[in-house]
Amino acid sequence: MSAAETNLSAMPKAAIDLARPRAFTALAASVTALRDSVVSRARSAMGIRYVLGGNDPSRGLDCSSLIKYVLGAIDISLPRTAQEQARAGRAIPKDRTQMKPGDLLTFGTGSKITHVGMYVGEGRFVHASTSKRQVIESSLDETRSSLVRQWKGVRRLVDGDFVAARYDSVFAYLDSMRDSVTDRRP
Fold first, then answer.
1. Quick check: 67 and 83 in contact, CB under 8 A?
2. Which among 74, 85, 103, 158 counts the fewest CB atoms within 10 Å?
3. Among residues 165, 173, 170, 16, which one has the least CA distance to residue 76?
4. Rg (alpha carbons) of the chain, rounded to whole number
5. pLDDT tens digit string along 36-69?
6. Mind telling me the catalytic residues?
7. For the chain, domain boundaries
């Protein structure tokens, strides 16, 4: 028996449950960590030059390639255009109290989506600005640009379902380990 198993076998069941969080707790922490990662990646892109049709950060990005670049870092594959990205993930109400960092914000006119950015929290988003000619962070309250004046919607790609699909086997293994330790207790 390993030292870890010996230490756990001496602990009361309630203490074991507290010492080894259930998969749901780990899942929630993983979702938060992923959101933090994509926000960090989006903010690290600030200052990259805006280039229409650009898809290489060293040469320049447009709005949809910025989002594709940021989410590609966590293996989320997205279509190339803002119009197509506006159908990815699941729709979230245009309500700041329900939005989470890492959500996509879509903008446009009529039924056409012409711009996309990433919500980073506190009413702010990162996007590739055509007027500033670079990736910037802006406030949803100051939408002077014609591209972002008409905020159309919110899409969520990073959530518990995404993390669960990627890490389900890890959480199942951790749960089985915890259960096997608690089953061996006298």
1. no
2. 74
3. 165
4. 21
5. 889 999 999 999 999 999 999 999 999 999 999 9
6. 63, 115, 127
7. 12-180
- State both tokens at 104: 């996509």
Residues 118 and 38 sit within 8 Å (Cβ to Cβ):
yes
Rounded to whole angstroms, the Cα distance separating 23 from 17 reads: 11
Query: What was the pLDDT predicted at 38?
Result: 92
Query: Does residue 186 carry a pLDDT above 90?
Result: no
Q: What is the pTM of this model?
A: 0.73
In this structure, what are the phi and psi dihedrals at residue 43, rounded to the nearest 5 degrees? -65, -30
CATH number of 12-180, picked from 3.90.1720.10, 3.40.190.10, 1.25.40.10, 3.40.30.10 = 3.90.1720.10
Read off the amino acid at residue 48.
I
Tell me how far CA of residue 141 lies from CA of 2, 47, 122, 138, in angstroms.
57, 21, 11, 9
Q: Is 157 helix (H, G, I), strand (E, B) or coil?
A: coil
Alpha-carbon torsion, ordered 131, 136, 141, 142, to 10 deg: -30
DSSP string, 67-88: HHHHHHTTT----SSHHHHTTS
